[in-house]
Amino acid sequence: MTGEGFFGFFHSGAAHAPVFEAMLRGLAADLPVRHAVREDLLTRARAEGVTDAVREAVAAEILRLAGEGAAVVLCTCSTLGPGAELAATRTGVPVLRIDRPMVEEALSAGSRILIAAALASTLGPTRDLVLRVAAERGLRPEIREVVAEGSWPLFEAGDREGYWRRIAETVRAEVGDAEVVVLAQASMAGAAALLLDLGIPVLSSPEAGLRRALALAGRPLPDRPGGDAAGRHIRG
Questions:
Q1: Where are the domains of the chain?
Q2: Are 209 and 100 in contact (CB under 8 A)?
Q3: Which CATH number describes the domain made up of 6-97+206-225?
Q4: Phi, then psi, of 221 in degrees rounded to 5
Q5: 35-91 tens-digit pLDDT
Q6: Quick count: other Cβ atoms within 10 Å of Cβ 34?
Q7: CA distance linking residue 119 with residue 6, whole number of Å
Q8: Residue 95: count of CB within 10 angstroms of its CB
Q9: For residues 218, 126, 170 and 151, what is the CA-based torsion angle, rounded to 10 degrees?
Q10: Cα end-to-end distance, the chain, whole Å
Q11: Spelled out in words, what is the top-level CATH class assigned to the domain 100-204?
Q12: How many helices (H) and strands (E) are present in the chain, helices listed first?
């Protein structure tokens, strides 16, 4: 990253800030970081949907970071991702929703896609992104969706292991003939390690999103050994 720009994060929960900062430090230890957190906007999105007002509020937070000197802003919440896309149209600073690289990788991996979420409010934004990226590529994916019922209260209670187990159990029960699984929320990434035996890609967004954001800010990283930097995936 050139100049004095910082790496900006927009989160929908305070618990995400230290997790993502630690991941970023593992990839680029010298970067200054700032976080914006708006838990209330996820609460609104869950209750009302991702309305124009919610998108505008997300965009305003991201544009504030851009105006303060961010070199890049990464939105870590898939549910609120449409607000990040809106912000991207209003600034020259790169703005990325964290799930975009994962979705691109999913469409490269197969046409039968299972989208798994812990919150039902995440399904719509993720499905819409898959369909838009597919249209850009002239593809017609077959999409199925599933919510890991009862998983989010475990996350809110701080039981990450239980959260990931519940998600993995749901995916295992619903995978069927899917060629690729998309874990729609960044917080779900730990469930992928519990699905090693599925024999298909199980994609999550955090590392792929961080790598893409760093590249947009002029700090591209070498591909991970044995992996494709375009998407974080685990194969059986």
A1: 6-97+206-225, 100-204
A2: yes
A3: 3.40.50.1860
A4: -110, 155
A5: 999 999 999 999 999 999 999 999 999 999 999 999 999 999 999 999 999 999 999
A6: 16
A7: 31
A8: 28
A9: 80
A10: 35
A11: alpha beta
A12: 9, 9
